[in-house]
């Protein structure tokens, strides 16, 4: 027979055609008696009520974005042709000092020739200060164009110029943009690629103008990233946009986030919980302990050995995990915090 089929008098089940049996009264109205096995299968867990600290908060829609302060632009210091790209796709991780690209530049070769000339002249006229100064100036010019001291020493040792030079990464990061391809000519100062460091990111949250008064620089907030349960972290608001977004009429606030384990990625959606008031002492329960239906809010109270009673309560403020109980419960009562909806389903089936 199907337990969801209930009627006022005797009859047969319209589904399986078996005779209906009377419902036994296992408890008072609003009560439910379960076996020990049923309690275990339903994973019923309870907690004793008592007053605890509670702080209401507002949930702000947010997103994870790059921290531009950790962005590194790699540009060409001279005119020439990209001879070889050692990194040919975005999303590639590079380390500081790693070769990024090789460039052919006649301008660079001319600078090398000038430096070797100054080296020979300073050696030919060791007593002339002007030649020493010209040598130093030529070395500085090479340095400005990206030549390292090791490359300058190698140039002198080989006494041979080359129009090719390899450019190395100035920092560790992820290649976020690649603006050139092999064989392409570039001008002095042209961007070749951009590196992003994701060890620290920003979370940007949206708030409406009429709510902006509650946001202050230095507010401690809790950030929860969608899809990363158990990875919440606290941060502080360090920036409030000076003006509204013209199209959305929304104000943006920002807070930094640690990302040492590289779990966060730009573009992820998040929630920022902004405290609205000071902490207060009150009876609070987990959100999933409260059942809401057309008659209001209810909780299950354990009244005896595996015996539960449905109790109507009046709820108050809530945050991301808890809700205040304004009335309907007293201290030191056992309230179901896991399996409440299963109990409610069982109660509905048995009581009709």
Question: How would you describe the overall organization of this protein?
Answer:
With 352 residues, this protein is of the alpha+beta class. It folds into three domains: 31-53 and 280-351, conserved putative lor/sdh protein from methanococcus maripaludis s2 fold (Beta Barrel), CATH 2.40.420.20; 58-68 and 199-275, Efflux pump adaptor protein, beta barrel domain (Elongation Factor Tu (Ef-tu), domain 3); 72-196, RNA polymerase II/Efflux pump adaptor protein, barrel-sandwich hybrid domain (OB fold (Dihydrolipoamide Acetyltransferase, E2P), Beta Barrel). Helices cover 18% and strands 38% of the residues. The strands form four sheets. Strands 1, 2, 3, 19, 20, 21, 22, 23 and 24 form a nine-stranded antiparallel β-sheet that branches. It has a seven-stranded antiparallel β-sheet with strand order 15-14-18-4-13-17-16, with no helix packed on it. The radius of gyration is 35 Å and the shape is elongated. The model is unreliable at 24-28 (pLDDT under 50).
